[in-house]
Amino acid sequence: MPAATFNLPIVGASNSSAAVMSSASSVSSTSAHDHLTLAVLGCGSMGIAILSGILNELAEMDAPRPLQVVTSSASVSSLSALYNAQSAPAASSSSFGASSAAAPDEMPERLPTHFLACVRRPEAAKRLRAALWAHSSVVKVVVDDNVAAVQQAGVVLLACQAGEAPALLSAPGMSRALQGKMLISICEGVTAEQIEGYLYGEEEAAASSTAVASPKEARCRIVRAMPNAASLIGESMTVVDTSSATGPLPADAAALVTWIFRRIGSVVHHPSRRAGASAGTRALTTVDRAAASSAAACTALGAAGPAFFALVLEAAIDGAVAMGLPRAEAQLLAAQSMRGAAGLVLQNGEHPTLLRDRITSPGGCAIQGLLALEEGGVRSTVARAVREATAVAVQEGK
Description:
The protein is of the alpha/beta class. The chain is built from 15 helices and ten strands.
């Protein structure tokens, strides 16, 4: 399929009226050259969740806002700050490799305005269209033509299964199509070095980590991000690796990556190695090892954490059922209790110990239950689970 066949509408445009993406257009020029296209390769459940979050946010940015009555100069300043935050100037460059490290909270200079969702099979395309039917006018579904989609894109999200990544990235023309672009990978267990190997060959990937590396403009910028299963309901905890085989994450790339993943939840940035450290260096310093371990702990807790908490939740439900409570009611009570506890910690920033102390009372049911948990070694067992998951994450990152 030739690249010219992708004729996509601008997000928010209709057949009978001008584009309605007023907020998005404030951060993107109206010329075709400045349109930013996002392609999702292997657009399964996670890709759909991310696309839905982005599209819903763009629609909300464009939605009419109620009139606000300004009653003081402070209010004027507040509204002005809000307007300015949403009206950042358009980017003058289409590349993601020239600027310095960015503040994670920055508004991107450009937002995506075109979307390509790529799958391998027609039946998958049918499911994808059904899932994104509300945005069907602004999303192009591409079947088994990843290279052509990447040629049209400015940013690429690699959302396929880890086992599919080698064949997808080593396809003829893929490395050339990605030249000078940003590739965001959410493939679990696939490192940036492995991605470079799939794209450019093992020998060339090894050479890229030495002092005599090929020119940066000949490669794509690889960013690893790890969202979790809660992405499906907009409650993900995504860990973004701010240091990759292609160097520290630049300002414009960091802002865009953060914006994308905040559409499905919260984001933390963490380097997997110190600035300037070579990914191919065998003798890692203490700082390098600490950075790698800390980054792996972020990945383990963020990605595997929901599974750990699901086991605790299941145990609480089973205990209530054993005492005569219907399972549906027990599940609602336990899940809402866990959600409320997490919400209090997130909202107030308090240590969980303070929450626990407020709940317990002398001779009450809470203190008796807590003592049973301590006697059973729940605290140390959960902590060990995180350590074991971190050890596996460290090995996956090598």
